[in-house]
């Protein structure tokens, strides 16, 4: 976690207060019926949740192909192993 200086913490607190003031002023400036419609849209969007992540590759491909020369070893076959004694 980043440790912030007292000045930075005060600046962040002042910024948060200013954002709340701007939001309150904006909400007062919007007509009530439009604000209600906006609130309904916001609630519906929050209920939906985030969109599912879109696949960025073709189905069936490995997510990170190995670098040349670093391919995984093939699995050892049981019949080729010999006991030590």
Can you give a write-up of this model?
The protein has 85 residues and is mainly α. The protein has a domain at 1-49. It has two helices and no strands. It has helices at residues 6-29, 32-48. The longest helix has 24 residues, at 6-29. The radius of gyration is 29 Å and the shape is elongated.
Instruction: Characterize the quaternary organization of these chains.
Output: single chain
- Tell me the total number of β-strands: 0
What is the CA-atom radius of gyration, in angstroms? 29 Å
Mean pLDDT: 87
Distance between the termini: 56 Å
Unreliable parts:
none
Quick synopsis:
The protein is an all-alpha fold. It has a domain at 1-49.
Question: What attributes does this structure have?
Answer:
48% helix; elongated; single chain; mainly alpha
Topology at a glance:
Elements lengths: L5 H24 L2 H17 L37
């Amino acid at each position: 976690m980043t440790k912030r200086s007292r000045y930075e913490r005060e600046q962040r607190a002042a910024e948060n207060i200013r954002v709340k003031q701007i939001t309150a002023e904006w909400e007062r400036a919007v007509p009530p019926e439009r604000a209600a419609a906006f609130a309904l849209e916001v609630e519906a969007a929050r209920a939906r949740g985030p969109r599912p992540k879109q696949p960025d590759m073709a189905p069936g491909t490995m997510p990170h192909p190995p670098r040349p020369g670093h391919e995984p070893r093939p699995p050892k076959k049981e019949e080729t192993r010999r006991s030590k004694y």
